[in-house]
Structure formats: C-alpha cells, structure tokens
Amino acid sequence: MRAVTANLFALLFLCALASVFYVWSALESRLERHKRRFSGSLHQGLPTDLSTKTFRALLAVPVAQRPRLGGRLEAHNLTDQTVSAGSPDYHVNGDNKRSARREGPVKLGSLVEDGIFWSEWLEDLLPEQFTEEYAQAWRERARTHRVVKLEPGCGRISNQLATFADGTKACVRYGINADQVQGETLTYYLASLLGITNLPPLILSQLSGGSEQWDAVRARTDGLQWSDGAVVSLTKWVSNLTGVVTPAPLRPESNGLHPVLLELRNKTTAELLELMQWTDLIVLDYLTANFDRLVSNLFSLQWDSRVMERDTNNLLKTPRGDLLFIDNEAGLVHGFRVLNMWEKYHSTVLSSVCVFRKRTTQRVAELHKRRDSRKRLLELYRDSEPLSLELGFLSDEHAAVLQDRIDRLYKHILHCRGKYSQL
User: Fold this and answer.
1) Where are the beta strands (DSSP E) in 56-116?
2) CA-CA distance, 338 to 295, in Å (whole number)?
3) Looking at beta carbons, which pairs linking 116-121 to residues 24 or more positions away fall under 8 Å?
4) Residue 246 φ/ψ, nearest 5 degrees
5) Could you tell me if 353 and 361 are in contact, meaning their C-beta atoms sit under 8 angstroms apart?
6) Which residue, 154, 266, 357, 363, shows the most beta carbons closer than 10 Å to its own?
7) What is the pLDDT of residues 215-241, one digit of tens each?
8) pLDDT value, residue 110
C-alpha cells in the first residue's frame, strides 16, 4: 500500500512539473513576442502549441566537429524557427511604374505561356529582389565593417542581431553545429545558381582572437560561449516584414497549383506575383530537402488541423510583396541526412505544382543536362566566399543526392509540360 501511495504521489508531482513547464513556456513565448513588437521588428516566434514542441523535439541531435572542405559532416542538425531580421535599406530593383502596375488589375489574356510557365508580363513585374551587384557590394562592406553591438533579435540566443559601426545590421548565426551554418550558406549559393534572388545576402566570418571585426564585442561573444575560431554566417537584416500564410492552391485540400486552375483568373496581380515566388520556393526547398518550411506544416497536420492557417516557417514578406526565404539551415546538409523521414512530404509538395518561372526551369534543365551541379556550386561558393575552406562543402554522397534531386525535378517539369502544354 505504501508503494502504491508513493507511486501516486510521484505521478502527481511529475504532472505538476509538466504543467509548470508548459505554462512557463507559454509565458516565455508571449514575452518574446512582446519584445519583438516593442522593438519594431517582426520576428516569427515559436508558437506555444504542443504540436510545434513535438516537431522540434524530433530535431534534437548531437553535435559534431567542423570538417574541412569536401569532408563528410557526420553531425545532425538542431534547427529552430528563427527569423532573419532587417534593415531599412532593403534593396528593390524596380521603378515606380512597375510598382504601380503591380497594384493594377490583372492583364487580360493568358496567365501562363508554353503550357506551364508564368507569363512574361508577370515575370516583368517581379524584378530581382537582391541583384548580384547589390549582394556583392553588401558582402564586401560586411566583411570589413566592425561589429559594435550584439543583442537578441534573430531567434534563439545562439543567434544574435549585430550592429556594424556604420549603423547597418545583420543576423549572426553561430550554429549549434556546423550543419546549420553550412546549410544556410550553401543554400544561398545554390539559389544564386538557380537565379532565385529571394534570399538576403550572406557572408561568413571567423571569430578569431585577433579579428578587428569582433574586437569591440569580445566580452559579449565570451558571455555567449562562442568558440574562438568558429565560423559564423552574417545575413543582411531587413525590416518591416510580415508573416506569410500558405496560399489555398498549395494546401492539402486543394487540387494543386496548375495552369488550368480557374481560381487563378480571380487573383489580383499582387496575389499572382506571390504565387510565382511560391513556385520558386518549392523548387528550392525540394532541391535542398529543406523540411523546415511548408513540409513541416504538412507533417504537423496529423495533430494540428489548422497549421496551414498560420504563418509559414521561415518565410516573410516585404511591404512591396517580395517574399524572403530565410533561415535555410535545414537544407542540403541536414535535410539530406534525414531525407528518408521527410521525402514523402517533399514529393507531395512538389507534385502540387505544375506552373514555374521560365528562368528557373531553364537553370534546372541546364544543371540536369550538364550533370555538374557539384562542380558549379563548389566553384561559386569557393570563388565568392574566402572562408569556404574553413566551413567545408558537401560530401560526395550529398553532392550525388543534390544531382539526383535536380534530375527528379527536371522529370517532374517534363511531366507537367506533357500534361498541360496541349491545353
């Protein structure tokens, strides 16, 4: 009897602890959201529902040593829903005339050309978010600017909002392990190969003791327990961002986004331009096997039927309507390592789309034909990033996975064209 009583008390005690932890987590999340609103910057905090906690728990994995270029990364990744913050000098490559046309009525005539491609007039309304010239200039400045302040504002405490000496800002990703920084960085350069410009400019920096760039915040980095010599990424900070809900054609209850979707003709020009960017996002996330965006929402549907009604992970929108694909740490490296777990969701998302940007599909077709994605990605990464040797590159196995996914995507595009080109 005493044993039963003791067990009962122990069970009640554990339940009490669990309740306290749940309430504290909710209060902590609300406090963080309040801080973000007060500071004027949008930051997607972790929702307090149990489904998100369950999803994130699946990602708790051990840490590994940082490899050299071409070496294998054996560690898994611990991702978190973080947000790239922003700066008022967000670069837009467009003019007032183009912006006015965005707000106007939908142009009469076909919205799709050659069966499966967004019309040229729509493409013309969506310029590059960050041109290569702009990105290169930002990277050159960011490599030389001194960091004078580090503070919370880019997600979890291991990431920091950095202020440079000239007043501009960047999000610093320290990374719980090398996978995170490597996934973020290589996804950025793969997007560049594909002509997808929705990712803010990025550089790598090394936290060395003699670095003038970090000297002014040495006490702060020591307090954060950032290791000397670690390689971190810095991403341009963009302000005045809002969350983005998955559009109806891309939700499971829909028949997908395809050229003969009647609802397309009822969309405004701005809505069509957003859908166009979603198709680029789905292409990029499929190739990188990034499960921490739309795919994670599909996974969460099994216990949260309203997840699609909430903001999508790691996706934000500027006041002009440009989508920013942020926090891509789950792509390529860790995404490939856990591919078996997520592949059915990746395939489901890809199969829901049969409309693409012509420019993007041309890049995919070229990478498929030449079968040199590893070589081209490595060359771009190595030529653009002085610290590429320190951070490392894809293993041969993961490079082969990338090429295979390019081939699969190309076959899907051909399938769509065969299905809709004659309609």
Assistant:
1) 112-113
2) 13
3) 116/259, 116/354, 116/355, 116/356, 116/413, 116/416, 116/417, 116/420, 116/421, 117/355, 117/356, 117/357, 117/358, 117/361, 118/272, 118/276, 118/279, 118/355, 118/356, 118/357, 118/358, 120/358
4) -60, 125
5) no
6) 154
7) 999 999 999 999 999 999 999 999 999
8) 78
